[in-house]
Recover the amino acids of this structure.
């Protein structure tokens, strides 16, 4: 990241795009959307980008993967080289809908994120702002995404720049029949996103059939997904359609796809490739026309590295990706959501509430919300049920916060006690080293892995192990 003087307070952006007319349009609209806060330079290809990066420090690099072959034959090799030259800049890869594997390769090579063409100036500006805040560069770039635009969309509530980008993505990909891969932590609204994609698309008049891959026993999953023929097993007295057939002409939503058994993943892959299925106990095939949407709260690349998810199935499903940001990354939406839930549940309980006191609002806004929107929703519902009405005060909030982790309940500080130095176990010291390296590279796992001379998959595997140790303790 370059050091800027007072005459250059807002930073520089490098746009790598071989289509000159398109590049000029994107640069102009992006510059307007950023309010003149970025100086934008354009490179026609990878070699020109290298020259610019060597001569000038940039804060953001926006690179079209299709125009980097003059630098390296493989786009991920080109990205790795450009990332090193960019020296800590935010690096965003751009791909078309048919080159998802190249985009994923760019992420592995060090890109912070990637977006799909065509680029929308306001949405891209919002995305840059969100990335700057996420990776701790918002202050140095003077980018503060503003809450503007629509405050609700297809079941979502929120006016933050992060949600504006999600709305724009949903509106863009809803009209397609290509598979959608939704990622996000638990409670971020992946099911709401799937419903929005269905309702905003051409299949809205047909059924949306959802199936939770984590909630159905392994031995019943195939019959639930593909159906069962009469006499296939004891108790199968009639032919029964599965979720895929029930969704014919509409949308099939596979929630928690990462929990699907490997043996069934191969059958799902064949279904996606051929558009045909066979019910359990049936020899013939049936043709089905569905749009598949899947979701997971786990890191799919980590699942692949652990041999829990087929890589070929991932690339078949991961055509149009949508990531739902956690609530802690969009604090401007927290009180908007809280007020919405308060009004909704007050009406259901026939009570009257006027809002939240300033100290309560401040505490809610600064909370971590590990359970995201669902956790906030549950807390507000408890408040409405347990309280008679009026304004939500701190004592009311403390009384309603009965969760075991006490996310928003004030905790008395523990007195400090002088103790002998504690020697941490080896795995904890290793965790500290790795997490410090990731933090020093702004959250970029690929760059941290390169600096530590280990593979990114090793970091993901160790993080999973640490999470399991923490859960066990």
């Amino acid at each position: 990241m370059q050091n800027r003087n007072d005459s250059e307070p807002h930073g520089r952006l490098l746009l790598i795009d071989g289509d000159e007319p398109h590049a000029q349009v994107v640069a102009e609209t992006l510059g307007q959307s950023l309010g003149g806060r970025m100086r934008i330079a354009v490179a026609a290809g990878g070699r020109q980008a290298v020259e610019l990066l060597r001569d000038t420090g940039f804060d953001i690099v926006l690179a079209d993967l299709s125009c980097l072959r003059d630098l390296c034959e493989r786009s991920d090799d080109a990205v790795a080289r450009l990332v090193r030259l960019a020296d800590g800049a935010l690096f965003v890869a751009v791909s078309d809908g048919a080159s998802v594997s190249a985009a994923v390769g760019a992420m592995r090579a060090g890109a912070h994120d990637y977006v799909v063409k065509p680029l929308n100036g306001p949405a891209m500006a919002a995305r840059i702002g969100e990335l700057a805040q996420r990776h701790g560069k918002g202050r140095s770039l003077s980018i503060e995404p503003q809450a503007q635009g629509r405050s609700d969309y297809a079941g979502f509530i929120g006016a933050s720049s992060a949600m504006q980008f999600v709305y724009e993505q949903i509106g863009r990909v809803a009209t397609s029949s290509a598979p959608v891969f939704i990622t996000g932590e638990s409670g971020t609204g992946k099911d709401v996103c799937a419903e929005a994609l269905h309702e905003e698309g051409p299949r809205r008049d047909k059924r949306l059939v959802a199936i939770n891959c984590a909630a159905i026993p392994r031995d019943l999953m195939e019959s639930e997904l593909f159906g069962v023929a009469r006499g296939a097993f004891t108790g199968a007295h009639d032919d029964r359609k599965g979720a895929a057939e029930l969704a014919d002409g509409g949308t099939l939503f596979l929630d928690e796809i990462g929990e699907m058994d490997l043996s069934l993943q191969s059958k799902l892959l064949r279904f996606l490739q051929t558009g045909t299925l066979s019910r359990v106990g049936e020899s013939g095939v049936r043709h089905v026309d569905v749009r598949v949407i899947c979701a997971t709260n786990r890191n799919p690349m980590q699942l692949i590295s652990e041999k829990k998810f087929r890589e070929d199935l991932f690339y078949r499903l991961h055509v149009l990706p949508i990531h739902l940001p956690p609530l802690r990354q969009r604090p401007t939406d927290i009180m908007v959501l809280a007020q919405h839930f308060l009004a909704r549940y007050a009406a259901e309980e026939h009570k009257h509430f006027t809002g939240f006191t300033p100290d309560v609002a401040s505490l809610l806004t600064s909370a971590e919300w590990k359970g995201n929107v669902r956790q906030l929703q549950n807390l507000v519902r408890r408040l409405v049920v347990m309280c008679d009405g009026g304004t939500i005060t701190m004592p009311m909030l403390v009384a309603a916060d009965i969760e075991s982790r006490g996310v928003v309940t004030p905790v008395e500080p523990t007195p400090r006690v002088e103790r002998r130095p504690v020697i941490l176990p080896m795995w904890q010291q290793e965790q500290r080293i790795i997490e410090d390296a990731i933090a020093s590279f702004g959250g970029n796992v690929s760059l941290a892995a390169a600096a530590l001379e280990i593979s990114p998959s090793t970091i993901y595997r160790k993080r999973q192990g640490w999470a399991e140790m923490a859960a066990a303790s």
